[in-house]
Amino acid sequence: MEFAVFTIVILIASILQTSTGFGFSILATPFLLLIFEPAEAIQINLILSLLISAALIAKVRKDVDIGVLKRFITGSSLGLPVGIAVFLMIDLNSLKLMVSLLILLLTLMLIFKFRISRNNKRDLLVGGLSGSLTTSIGMPGPPILLYFSGTETKKETLRSTTLAFYLFIYLVSLIMQVSFAGTNKTVWLSSFWALPLVAAGLYLGQLLFGRINQRIFRMFTYVILLFTGSYLLLESLGWLP
């Protein structure tokens, strides 16, 4: 049963990450936490997400917003150590509860047409939040996804800039996770067995990307955010097994 769940989740999450530029950690991490220990789930997520971003970056690099990418990286450099401190020292259920409520609130605001303008300070702030969430719960996506949705960024720019940022954030986060929390054989063997699923997801996701218009892309975004916020909320309250 666990193998079936692992297979389905990794394949769907890989397709989602390839076709949208986000979603692997958002979709995969909650289910991986049902199968693995928290540190194992987060590290498997980091490894596979890093591989997907590396495989796609050459194809999408022309659409990367370099200025935003640089500010995201700068901001995340401050957020990464904060996140690992949270992971090692603070009750993660409390963190998940706060994050879930914030995600749900902001997503509802976006659905009801709340929009924001992008500027350099907000780029830095979003990068910092993303960095802290990567090393604490393995989910860098929500702050970036909410920000890009609120600024109505084109799907091509969103996907490419997010994937380029993930190359940095996932690599550094993985190094920090392994250094401070340790690692084990389960993490690397599970990641190895997931490689064929990731390859299939890369192929299918590329096909799907060309068929998604901006409106459907935005709907995907809202559904993923609502799912993530709801899952984290229920898990933090102990309503999930």
The overall pLDDT, averaged over residues, is: 86
Task: Write the H/E string, N to C.
Answer: HHHHHHHHHH
Strand composition percent: under 5%
- Helix residue percentage: over 70%
Structural class: mainly alpha
Q: What is the multimeric organization of the chains shown?
A: single chain
Strands, count? 0
Radius of gyration: 16 Å
Total helices: the number is 10
Q: Uncertain spans, ≥5 residues at pLDDT below 50? A: none
Domain tally: 1
Report how far the terminal alpha carbons are from each other.
15 Å
Shape: globular
Described by strand count, sense and barrel closure, the largest sheet is: none
Q: Could you characterize the architecture of this molecule?
A:
InterPro entries: TM_pro_TauE-like (IPR002781), TSUP (IPR052017). Belongs to the 4-toluene sulfonate uptake permease (TSUP) (TC 2.A.102) family. By secondary structure, this protein is an all-alpha fold. Helices cover 83% and strands 0% of the residues. It has ten helices and no strands. Helix 3 packs parallel to helix 9, helix 5 runs antiparallel to helix 10 and helix 6 packs antiparallel against helix 7.
Short characterization:
The chain has ten helices and no strands.
